[in-house]
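Budget justification aside, the reviewers requested a transparent look at the raw inputs and outputs of the sequence design task funded under Objective 1. We therefore reproduce one unedited record. The lines immediately below are the C-alpha cells for a 568-residue chain.
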C-alpha cells in the first residue's frame, strides 16, 4: 500500500483508458454530478491494474487548485469523490455495469399467437408493454445513478468496504477549498448553512467556521458602507436531529438556548435559526423557503459542519420537499461519509447552487478516536432517555470506558446526576475509592467503548479536569458538563460542589447552561446498568472463571498422592 501511495506524488493520468467528458454548465464552481460522456478510448475494466493511478490530491471532487483543471474523471453523486475503475485499492473505485438487453426483465410466458411474430419485442409479446407506451410523469423517479464501491457498501451494508483506501486521501482543507469561495467579495451571494447536531451541540459546532464567517460579515459590511465591492455572507444555523431530544422541551426555549450557545461559539451574525429533523421532516420546508429567499436566483449555498452532523441527510430531506426531487447523497451512521464537494441539483431552482461539503474533523471529539464499531455504540439514533443518580460525596459515575465523574466535595448531603448519552453505552456507579481498579478490570469489557482491553491504551492518556459548580434548587439542573462526541451530565443541587472529570487527554469537556432539566422517574442503583454489553462481558468472564476452576481441580487431583504411596 505504501509503495502504491509513493507513486501518486507525480501528477500523471492514465493514458490507455482516458475518459473524456464535459459538464453541462461552465459557470459552476465545481463539476456537476452527472457528466455527459463523450468518448471511451477503451472500455473500463476492473481487472486491469497496469495503468498509472490518478493523483490522490485530485480525487476529492471540487478540491483541485484554482489554477489547475479538474481531473478527467466522473464524480460520484453520493460522496463527491472522483471515480476510477483501474485501481481497486484506491478511493473512488467502481465497477462499470455490464450492458443489459432491454428485454432482460421480461417473463418467459408469451402471449398466445404472438410467438411467431419476429418484429415484436419479447416484452410486448408477454404483455408487459403496450404498443404505444406513455412516458412516465411521476416526479422523483429518476434512474439510480452510478456510485463508487464505497457508497454502494455504505448504502446496502452500512459499512465502508475498504477503510484503508480512504485513509490514503489527503485531509480535506476547508480553509483553502471552501472558505475563500464563501467569503469572496465578488460573484454570487453566499449563504452558509451551518449544520449542528442537537445531541452534541458544542462538540459538533464549527467554531472556526463561525469565527471566520462572522469576521467576513463585519469586514464586508464596512467595505459596503465605503462603496467598495462587498458580498456579505448570510448565515443560517440549522440544528438537526431534534427528534433525539425529549418531546417535553419547548421549541422557544430550545431556540433561545441555541442562540446563546452560538454566540459563545463565535456566531454573532445569524440570519436565522432553524430547528429541524431530517428523519421526521420537521421544519425542513420552512428552511427551504428561507434558503431560497436569501440565495435569490443566482446565489451559492454552502452546507458546512462537523463530521456526522447530518448535512447530507438534511440535503436529501430538502430535496424531497421540492416537487418530489430526490438527491442521491450517501448517508450512513459513519463520520466522514462525504469525501468531496458535491453540487446538488434541483433543490433551489433557477440558477442558485447548493453544495454539500465534507465534514470538518474535530479532533477534540471522542468519536474521532473510535473505531467504526465503537462509533456505532456512541452515536445517538433514538430519542434520549434520562438516567439519573442521587449520590453522595466520595462516589463516581462511569460512562462506558470514556468518561468518569467524581463527586469530591459537597456542601450538601447529596446531588443529582442525570446522564444524557447513547443507551448502548453502559454506566457504572460506585465508591471513588474502588474505581482505581475499574480501568484495569472493566474497561473494554463491561465498560465499552473501547471494545477490547488493548484499545484502552490506544485512546490516549487518562487525565483529570476540575469543576467547581453551584446551584440554587433541586428540581432543575444547575449546569451541564458536556464531553464532545459523547453526551453530557446534568448536575442538580442546592449548594456547592467540586467535581473531578476524567477522560482522555485532548478531548473537550466544558460546562454550559443546562439544556434539559428533567430527571428519570426511577433512579439508577449502584453497580452496572442493565446492558447487553455488560451481560455478554459477564458471561465471558464467568466462563473463563469456570474453566480456570475446573483446570485447578484437575491439576490438584493429579498431584494428590495415592494411599499406597503415603503408607510406603
Amino acid at each position: 500500500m505504501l509503495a502504491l501511495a509513493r507513486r501518486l506524488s507525480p501528477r500523471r493520468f492514465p493514458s490507455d483508458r482516458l475518459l473524456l467528458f464535459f459538464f453541462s454548465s461552465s459557470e459552476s464552481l465545481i463539476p456537476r454530478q452527472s457528466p455527459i460522456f463523450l468518448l471511451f478510448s477503451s472500455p473500463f475494466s476492473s481487472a486491469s491494474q497496469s495503468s498509472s493511478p490518478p493523483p490522490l490530491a485530485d480525487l476529492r471532487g471540487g478540491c483541485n487548485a484554482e489554477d489547475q483543471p479538474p481531473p478527467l474523471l466522473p464524480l460520484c453523486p453520493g460522496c463527491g469523490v472522483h471515480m476510477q475503475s483501474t485501481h481497486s485499492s484506491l478511493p473512488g473505485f467502481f465497477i462499470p455495469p455490464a450492458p443489459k438487453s432491454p428485454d432482460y426483465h421480461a417473463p418467459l410466458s408469451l402471449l398466445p399467437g404472438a410467438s411467431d411474430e419476429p418484429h415484436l419485442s419479447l416484452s410486448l409479446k408477454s404483455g408487459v408493454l403496450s404498443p404505444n407506451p406513455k412516458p412516465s410523469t411521476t416526479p422523483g423517479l429518476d434512474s439510480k445513478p452510478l456510485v463508487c464501491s464505497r457508497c454502494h457498501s455504505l448504502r446496502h451494508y452500512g459499512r465502508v468496504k475498504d477503510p484503508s483506501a480512504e485513509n490514503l486521501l489527503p485531509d480535506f482543507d476547508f480553509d483553502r477549498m471552501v472558505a475563500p469561495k464563501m467569503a469572496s467579495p465578488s460573484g454570487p451571494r453566499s449563504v452558509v448553512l451551518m449544520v449542528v447536531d442537537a445531541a452534541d451541540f458544542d462538540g459538533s459546532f464549527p467554531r472556526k467556521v463561525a469565527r471566520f464567517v462572522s469576521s467576513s460579515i463585519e469586514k464586508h459590511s464596512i467595505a459596503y458602507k465605503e462603496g467598495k465591492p462587498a458580498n456579505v455572507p448570510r448565515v443560517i444555523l440549522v440544528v438537526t436531529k431534534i427528534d433525539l431530544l425529549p418531546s417535553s422541551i419547548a421549541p422557544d426555549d430550545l431556540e433561545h438556548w441555541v442562540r446563546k450557545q452560538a454566540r459563545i461559539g463565535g456566531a454573532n451574525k445569524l440570519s436565522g435559526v432553524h430547528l429541524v429533523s431530517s428523519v421526521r421532516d420537521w421544519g425542513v420546508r420552512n428552511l427551504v423557503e428561507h434558503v431560497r429567499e436569501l440565495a435569490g436566483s443566482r446565489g451559492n449555498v454552502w452546507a458546512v459542519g462537523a463530521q456526522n452532523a447530518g448535512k447530507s441527510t438534511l440535503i436529501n430531506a430538502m430535496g424531497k420537499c421540492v416537487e418530489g426531487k430526490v438527491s442521491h447523497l450517501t448517508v450512513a451512521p459513519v463520520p466522514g461519509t462525504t469525501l468531496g464537494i458535491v453540487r446538488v441539483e434541483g433543490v433551489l431552482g433557477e440558477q442558485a447552487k447548493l453544495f454539500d461539503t465534507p465534514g470538518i474533523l474535530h479532533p477534540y471529539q471522542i468519536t474521532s478516536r473510535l473505531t467504526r464499531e465503537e462509533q456505532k455504540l456512541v452515536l445517538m439514533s433514538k430519542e434520549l432517555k434520562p438516567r439519573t443518580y442521587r449520590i453522595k460525596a466520595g462516589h463516581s459515575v462511569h460512562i462506558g470506558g470514556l468518561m468518569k465523574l467524581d463527586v469530591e466535595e459537597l456542601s450538601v448531603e447529596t446531588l443529582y446526576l442525570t446522564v444524557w448519552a447513547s443507551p448502548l453505552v453502559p454506566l457504572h456507579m460506585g465508591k471513588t475509592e474502588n474505581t482505581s481498579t475499574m480501568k484495569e478490570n472493566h474497561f473494554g469489557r463491561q465498560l465499552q467503548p473501547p471494545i477490547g482491553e488493548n484499545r484502552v491504551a490506544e485512546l490516549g492518556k487518562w487525565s483529570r479536569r476540575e469543576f467547581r459548580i453551584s446551584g440554587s434548587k433541586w428540581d432543575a439542573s444547575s449546569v451541564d458538563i458536556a464531553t464532545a462526541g459523547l453526551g453530557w451530565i446534568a448536575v442538580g443541587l442546592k449548594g456547592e460542589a467540586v467535581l473531578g472529570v476524567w477522560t482522555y487527554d485532548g478531548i473537550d469537556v466544558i460546562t454550559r447552561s443546562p439544556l434539559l432539566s428533567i430527571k428519570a422517574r426511577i433512579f439508577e442503583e449502584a453497580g452496572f446498568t442493565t446492558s447487553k454489553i455488560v451481560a455478554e462481558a459477564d458471561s465471558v468472564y464467568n466462563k473463563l472463571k469456570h474453566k480456570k476452576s475446573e483446570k485447578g481441580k484437575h491439576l490438584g487431583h493429579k498431584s494428590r498422592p495415592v494411599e499406597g504411596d503415603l503408607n510406603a
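Residues 236 and 410 are 42 Å apart (CA to CA). Confidence is low (pLDDT under 50) at residues 4-50, 128-142, 562-568. Computational costs for records of this kind are itemized in the attached budget.
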